[in-house]
Design a protein that fits this description.
- With 307 residues, the protein is α+β, with helices and mostly antiparallel strands.
- The protein has two domains: 8-160, no CATH class; 183-305, no CATH class.
- It has helices spanning 39-43, 74-82, 105-122, 140-156, 239-247, 270-278, 284-287, 296-305, and strands at residues 8-11, 20-23, 29-35, 52-60, 63-71, 90-98, 126-127, 197-204, 209-216, 219-222, 227-229, 251-254, 258-261, 265-267.
- It has a seven-stranded mixed beta sheet. Strands 8-9-10-14 form a four-stranded antiparallel beta sheet, covered by helices on one side. A three-stranded antiparallel beta sheet has the order 11-13-12.
- Strand 12 (251-254) and strand 13 form a beta hairpin.
- The longest helix has 18 residues, at 105-122.
- It is elongated, with a radius of gyration of 21 Å.
- The two termini are 20 Å apart.
Length: 307
């Protein structure tokens, strides 16, 4: 079991949806998060005039979108984005600076490049940056310091509801999904024994749906090779997300009536994943099942009953 950590959140105006600062004891980093409607107040603060990086965060069609930037005076860059009609997606801004003023231009250029790279690799959000930042070079000791800085951001940002830097959950080394797979006959994955991880299956003979996923602490990853359907006989609130996955090449239409996951895809909930696969609104906890036949909801309820 890993050691506990302390993260200090300060509600600047006493409301959780307003200006919020976040810090970790003995870490020089400082984070300020604010809704776009409070941008003027956020940019009037001292930290907005420092060298640092920033995130512009928004959502379209159920998919998180992020722009990562840097600047010697980050307020100047953010004001420019606020006037940019091509960047109207964002609803929240997050400023990352240093309490001891030790971040230099070279440091933030390195951080910008790494954070774009990590966000894209984790696939939890679409990166809006038009190009991959160069990043530049740093001495070995400075690179180590900046990698530690990145690790702290990965720890602290999820407490603000921003998990796009969080690493993908550790997935089992499983065989490719087969249309004829029978959960009870598949070998048990090493991840099945990992705390907080459970293998899940979803299938419907009428539509040809045959999907496999891993749930880690409530975050569900649909595995590459899983099959969904193009048939739609009911409303799908996640239709926009489904279309975005198709446009991104992560979900491919095959044979005219099926979709196939070309890579592992992380979903914020079991229902979102089920809706994309079934192409209709779906109660994920009732549709996903463990290999023993229990639904995800029944399994969760059994954990409560054991305590």
């Amino acid at each position: 079991m890993s050691n506990g950590r302390t993260i200090k959140l300060f509600l600047v105006d006493g409301t959780p949806l307003g200006l919020v600062t976040a810090e970790i004891p003995n870490w020089t980093g400082h984070i300020l998060s604010a809704p776009r409607t409070r941008l003027s107040e956020a940019l009037s603060r001292d930290e907005a005039g420092r060298t640092g990086i920033y995130f512009l965060v928004g959502e379209e069609a159920g998919r998180l979108k992020v722009y990562v930037g840097e600047g010697d005076c980050i307020s100047v860059r953010i004001k420019a984005h606020a006037k940019d009609e091509d960047k109207e997606f964002w609803e929240r801004v997050c400023l990352v600076t240093s309490k001891d003023f030790n971040l230099t231009k070279a440091h933030v250029r390195y951080l910008e490049s790494r954070l774009v790279e990590i966000t894209a690799a984790n696939s939890r959000a679409d990166v809006i940056n038009a190009t991959q930042p160069i990043g530049g070079s740093l001495p070995e000791s400075d690179r180590a310091d900046m990698e530690f800085f990145v690790a702290q951001l990965q720890m602290i940002l999820p407490t603000l509801g921003l998990n796009f830097l969080s690493p993908k959950p550790a997935l089992p080394d499983v065989s490719p999904v087969s249309p004829m797979m029978i959960p009870s006959e598949l070998p048990v994955s090493p991840a099945a024994a990992t705390a907080g991880a459970v293998e899940l299956f979803l299938s419907h003979a009428s539509t040809g749906v045959q999907a496999r996923a891993v749930d880690v602490d409530g975050e569900l990853t649909v595995l590459k090779g899983s099959l969904g359907t193009t048939q739609q006989n009911a409303q799908n609130s996640y239709g926009g997300l489904r279309e975005q996955l198709i446009l991104a090449g992560k979900l491919q239409i095959i044979g005219g009536d099926k979709t196939e996951f070309i890579e592992d895809v992380v979903f914020p909930s079991a229902s979102a994943a089920a809706a994309v696969i079934n192409n209709r609104n779906s109660a994920g906890p009732r549709e996903w099942k463990l290999r023993n036949g229990l639904t995800l909801r029944e399994w969760r309820d059994s954990l409560i009953d054991l305590k």
